[in-house]
C-alpha cells in the first residue's frame, strides 16, 4: 500500500512541484541581472514605448536597465540618418530629451557622430550592478506614405557598445494597426526579430528581441491607415562628391562670376604689364626695305642675330646661340672647318680660334667665345671639335643665355628680363592653382559649393600658362622687331638685290653676312639657294673665308653642309633646343 499514491499524497506532490516551479522562476529572473563571467557592462533590458501623434511625431518613453561595473556614465546612441539615395539621406529628429531624476542620473550632453545622435548620461557616483534610467524624448520623421498606407519604420533600439539581453518596443496609435514587422541585426538587416504581434484591439504593436550583440539594432515597422498622422519623411541633401560639385544657380553663378573677375583681372594685368608698348605689325611695312640697306659686314640696324632671336620669341634659345657661333665666324672671330668624313668616318667640324681683338664683342658673345675655347679643366685651347662640346658645355650655355637676357634689357628692348618675368608669373599661377586646389578640397568636404573653387584653379592654370606671354617689349624693342619682320620676309624670299646678283663674290659676301639671321629665322635652306652656283661663277670660290670644307668640296655643297652644321651644333651644345 505504501507504493500506491493516494489522492491526498498526490495533491501534496503537485503542491510541492508547483512550489518548486515558483521558486525556480524568481531565481531564473534574478540570474538575468547577474553580469557575465568577464564582469563586463551590459544592457539587461531596454523597453521603448512609442505613442504616434500628429504629423508622424512620436512621444517616447524609454526605460533602460543597465548593469554597471564601476562606471558613472553611459551613452544612448540613436540612428538619426540613413542613406536614401545618391544625393539624399532620410533623417530622424530627436528632440526634447529629458532624463528621469531617479537614482541620480542627469543629461550630460548631446552630439552627432556620423549617422547617429549620441545622448550622454552620467551619475554623480561610480555605480555597480543593475540600475534603471528613464528617458523621454520626441522623434519625428519616422512615418512615411507607403503602398497606400502610412508606414512607421525606425531603429527604436540598438547601437549599444555592449551586449543587450532583452529588448521590447511597443507602438501605440489612435487607429487600427494594419500590419507589423521587425528586423534585428545590422541596421539594414532583413532578419526577423524574436517576436512581433498586435494586441487584441490592434491599436498596439508589440516587438520583442532576445540578445543583441554590440552595434546591432531592432527596427520596428507598423502599417497605419492612410491619413492617420499625416506624417511625411524628412530628407536632407547627402553630402558627397556628386553634391559637392553639383551645378545649381549658386555654384554656376559663383563659378562664372569668379572666372570673369579673375580673367578680367589677368587681362588688365596683361594690358598694363604684359603687352608690347607699340604694335609691331603696324611698323613692319616701314622696315621691309631698311634691313637690306648699307654696306660692309654690319648687320641690319646694328642688331646681332642672337639679340634678334631673343627679341622675337622673348627666349634665349639654343638656336640663338648656334646663330651667334655662325655670326662669330662670319665676323672673323673663329674659323669653322668641316672634317673629311672619308678620313674620320663621321661628320664633324673643328672650331678654330682666330686672333682678333674682342673690343666689338658684346658681353654674351665674349662669354660664348671663351666657353668654346676653354677646356673643362680651365686651360685655354686654340680649337675644339663640335663633338667634344657635349654635356660639359651645358653649364656654360646657361651663362651665355643669362647674358643674352641681360643684354636685351641693357639695349632698352625690355624693361625686365623676359625669363624673370615668365618665372614670376608662372610661380604666381602655380601658387594660385595650389590655393585653388586646397580651397576646392575644403569646400568639397564642408559644402556643396566646391564648383566655385574650380574657378581659382582655372585662373591659376591660365596665369601659369599665360605667364609665358607676359614679357613686354618697350617701344624701342617693338620698333626693332618691326624692322626685323621685314628683314625676315626678305630672307624667306631668298632674292639677291639686283646690284649684287651678277657679282658672285658680292653674292657670297651678302650670303655670309645674312646667314646667321637665316639660322635664327629658320630659313637656311631657302637662303642657301642664293649661293648655290657661286662656286662655278666666282674665281677661287671653293671655300669661304670663315668656312673651310674638306678636299673636293666647293660652294655647291655648302647649302647642305651649313644645314647639317646648324643642326649638329644645336644638338652638341644642348640636348634640347628649348633649354
Provide a brief overview of the structure:
With 579 residues, this protein is of the alpha+beta class. The protein is 40% helix and 26% strand. The chain has 18 helices and 19 strands.
Question: Could you please describe the fold and organization of this structure?
Answer:
This protein is α+β, with helices and mostly antiparallel strands. It folds into three domains: 197 residues, Immunoglobulin-like (Sandwich); 103 residues; 215 residues, no CATH class. The protein has 18 helices and 19 strands. The strands form four sheets. Strands 1, 2, 5, 6, 7, 10, 12 and 13 form an eight-stranded mixed sheet that branches. It has a four-stranded antiparallel sheet with strand order 8-9-14-11, with no helix packed on it. The longest helix has 29 residues. The N and C termini lie far apart (124 Å). Keywords: Membrane, Signal, Transmembrane, Transmembrane helix. This is DUF2207 domain-containing protein.
Amino acid at each position: 500500500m505504501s507504493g500506491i499514491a493516494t489522492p491526498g499524497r498526490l495533491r501534496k506532490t503537485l503542491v510541492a512541484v508547483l512550489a518548486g516551479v515558483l521558486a525556480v522562476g524568481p531565481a531564473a529572473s534574478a540570474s538575468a541581472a547577474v553580469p557575465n563571467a568577464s564582469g563586463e557592462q551590459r544592457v539587461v533590458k531596454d523597453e521603448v514605448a512609442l505613442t504616434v501623434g500628429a504629423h508622424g511625431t512620436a512621444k517616447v518613453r524609454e526605460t533602460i536597465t543597465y548593469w554597471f561595473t564601476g562606471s558613472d556614465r553611459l551613452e544612448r546612441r540613436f540612428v538619426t540618418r540613413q542613406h536614401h539615395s545618391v544625393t539624399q539621406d532620410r533623417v530622424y529628429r530627436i528632440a526634447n530629451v529629458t532624463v528621469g531624476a531617479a537614482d541620480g542620473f542627469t543629461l550630460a550632453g548631446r552630439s552627432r557622430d556620423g549617422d547617429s545622435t549620441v545622448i550622454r548620461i552620467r551619475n554623480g557616483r561610480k555605480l555597480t550592478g543593475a540600475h534603471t534610467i528613464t528617458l523621454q524624448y520626441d522623434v519625428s520623421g519616422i512615418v512615411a506614405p507607403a503602398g497606400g498606407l502610412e508606414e512607421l519604420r525606425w531603429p527604436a533600439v540598438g547601437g549599444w557598445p555592449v551586449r543587450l539581453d532583452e529588448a521590447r518596443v511597443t507602438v501605440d496609435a489612435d487607429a487600427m494597426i494594419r500590419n507589423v514587422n521587425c528586423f534585428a541585426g545590422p541596421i539594414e538587416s532583413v532578419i526577423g526579430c524574436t517576436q512581433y504581434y498586435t494586441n487584441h484591439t490592434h491599436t498596439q504593436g508589440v516587438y520583442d528581441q532576445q540578445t543583441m550583440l554590440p552595434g546591432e539594432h531592432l527596427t520596428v515597422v507598423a502599417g497605419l491607415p492612410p491619413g492617420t498622422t499625416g506624417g511625411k519623411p524628412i530628407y536632407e541633401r547627402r553630402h558627397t562628391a556628386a553634391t559637392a560639385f553639383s551645378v545649381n544657380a549658386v555654384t554656376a553663378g559663383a563659378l562664372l562670376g569668379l572666372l570673369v573677375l579673375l580673367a578680367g583681372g589677368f587681362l588688365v594685368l596683361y594690358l598694363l604689364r604684359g603687352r608690347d608698348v607699340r604694335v609691331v605689325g603696324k611698323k613692319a611695312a616701314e622696315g621691309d626695305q631698311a634691313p637690306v640697306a648699307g654696306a660692309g659686314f654690319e648687320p641690319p640696324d646694328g642688331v646681332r642675330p642672337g639679340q634678334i632671336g631673343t627679341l622675337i620669341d622673348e627666349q634665349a634659345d639654343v638656336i640663338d646661340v648656334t646663330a651667334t657661333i655662325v655670326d662669330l665666324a662670319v665676323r672673323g672671330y673663329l674659323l669653322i672647318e668641316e672634317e673629311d668624313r672619308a678620313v674620320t668616318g663621321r661628320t664633324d667640324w673643328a672650331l678654330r680660334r682666330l686672333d682678333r681683338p674682342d673690343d666689338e664683342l658684346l658681353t654674351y658673345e665674349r662669354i660664348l667665345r671663351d666657353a668654346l675655347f676653354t677646356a673643362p679643366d680651365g686651360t685655354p685651347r686654340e680649337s675644339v671639335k663640335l663633338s667634344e662640346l657635349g654635356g660639359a658645355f651645358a653649364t656654360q650655355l646657361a651663362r651665355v643665355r643669362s647674358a643674352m637676357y641681360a643684354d636685351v634689357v641693357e639695349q632698352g628692348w625690355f624693361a625686365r628680363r623676359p625669363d624673370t618675368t615668365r618665372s614670376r608669373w608662372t610661380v604666381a599661377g602655380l601658387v594660385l592653382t595650389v590655393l585653388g586646389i586646397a580651397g576646392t578640397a575644403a569646400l568639397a568636404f564642408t559644402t556643396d559649393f566646391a564648383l566655385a573653387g574650380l574657378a581659382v584653379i582655372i585662373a591659376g592654370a591660365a596665369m601659369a600658362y599665360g605667364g609665358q606671354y607676359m614679357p613686354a617689349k618697350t617701344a624701342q624693342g617693338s620698333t626693332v622687331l618691326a624692322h626685323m619682320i621685314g628683314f625676315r620676309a626678305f630672307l624667306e624670299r631668298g632674292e639677291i638685290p639686283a646690284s649684287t646678283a651678277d657679282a658672285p663674290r658680292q653674292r657670297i659676301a651678302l650670303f655670309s653676312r645674312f646667314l646667321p639671321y637665316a639660322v635664327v629665322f629658320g630659313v637656311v635652306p631657302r637662303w642657301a639657294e642664293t649661293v648655290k652656283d657661286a662656286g662655278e661663277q666666282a674665281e677661287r670660290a671653293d671655300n669661304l673665308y670663315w668656312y673651310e670644307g674638306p678636299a673636293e668640296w666647293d660652294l655647291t655643297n655648302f647649302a647642305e653642309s651649313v644645314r647639317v652644321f646648324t643642326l649638329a651644333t644645336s644638338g652638341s651644345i644642348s640636348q634640347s633646343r628649348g633649354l
